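Quiz preparation item.
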């Protein structure tokens, strides 16, 4: 299903359905979305925007720091989202993720999903605004 979204949605959906731990990388923003579906009594799934890791080993260590109740994951699946965050919503990929993590968690987990998507949308909006204005690490053509 690689069509107007520019990504194989079947593969993204499959990864969301079966992976224990996913790191989602985005096209326009540097932060990553870490999703850990592992649970145990008293410990629900985990969803958080995290900084980019310096290496695979660094990512595994950061997961262990964030989730000390669990062993290192066997593997971490990486999903590169090459489009904007609004397209993540329209494509159904975000809802697929929310449905799975909410089924494993509680009401707070679902609320966290809402806060996370708002954070991602705002982050992307800021990045685009900075690019247009030549702010941060961007430079406009007319400043040269």
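Solution:
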């Amino acid at each position: 299903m690689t069509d107007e979204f520019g990504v194989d949605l079947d593969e993204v959906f499959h990864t969301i359905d079966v992976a224990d731990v996913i790191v989602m990388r985005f096209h326009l923003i540097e932060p990553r979305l870490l999703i850990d579906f592992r649970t145990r009594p008293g410990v629900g799934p985990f969803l958080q925007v995290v900084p980019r890791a310096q290496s695979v080993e660094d990512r595994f260590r950061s997961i262990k720091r964030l989730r000390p109740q669990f062993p290192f994951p066997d593997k971490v699946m990486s999903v590169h989202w090459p489009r904007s965050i609004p397209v993540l919503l329209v494509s159904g990929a975000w809802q697929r993720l929310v449905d799975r993590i909410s089924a494993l968690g509680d009401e707070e987990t679902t609320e966290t999903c809402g806060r996370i998507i708002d954070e991602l949308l705002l982050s992307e909006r800021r990045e685009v605004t900075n690019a247009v204005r030549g702010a941060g690490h961007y430079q406009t053509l007319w400043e040269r």
